[in-house]
Amino acid sequence: MKVIIGISANHNAAESLYCLREAYVVSVREAGGVPLILPALDDVTLVDEYLDICDAFILSGGGDIDPFYWGEVPETGLGEINPLRDSFELMLARRLLLQNTPVLGICRGCQLLSVAAGGKLVQDLATGMSHEQNAPRPYPFHDILIYKETMLARILDSHEARVNSFHHQAVRETGVGMRVSARAPDGTIEAIESMDKNFWLGVQWHPEFLRDEYSRRLFRALIEAVYMTK
Fold this sequence. Notes:
Elements: E1 3-8, E2 10-12, E3 17-19, H1 22-30, E4 33-38, H2 44-53, E5 56-59, H3 83-97, E6 103-106, H4 108-116, E7 120-122, E8 142-146, H5 151-156, E9 160-163, E10 170-173, E11 178-183, E12 189-194, E13 200-203, H6 207-210, H7 213-229
Parallel strand pairs: 1-4, 1-5, 5-6, 6-13
Antiparallel strand pairs: 2-3, 7-10, 8-9, 8-11, 11-12, 12-13
């Protein structure tokens, strides 16, 4: 049986369209999965239907998350937010917290996993190090340090990697039951993971664009996790 991977789509409210970069679809397909793009709707029953259809999920990258969801007021550096996407993806992630379905959060998706579990974000990074590269998307921009004895270290079989970077929000505090598994040189959290679930992993970079062995391992591990939970 092929593994069906649901991938959350971005939502452009101004033009009434859903969109997703093809790199997500290509990465899932090359890893052996069946990609299924999931549009956001304010409908809890749709979340249940997605859960019935999909074997695992990818929460994709995109814009900023509303700080309302971790009890803060908007700061001046906050970017554009999408209320529908925030509401839908948090509904989905919170439902996934109650079960053991494998989930990979990418960039915004990493942040959303933390918020869904009760964590908090930095609204606008100001560490002196750039996290929004002015370089092609497949270009590795900075190093990360991967903590030993974490799921991420086991998947990548490494304690360091070089990644791309397109964000100005980041995880400040992990949610309940989660831990940090990688950081950038300035201390910014670059990956988080569950301490008790089979595969609940968030990475702050965009592995779908890097196309290196580390990135391929991430997508293969997501699919392999499905077989481990069945």
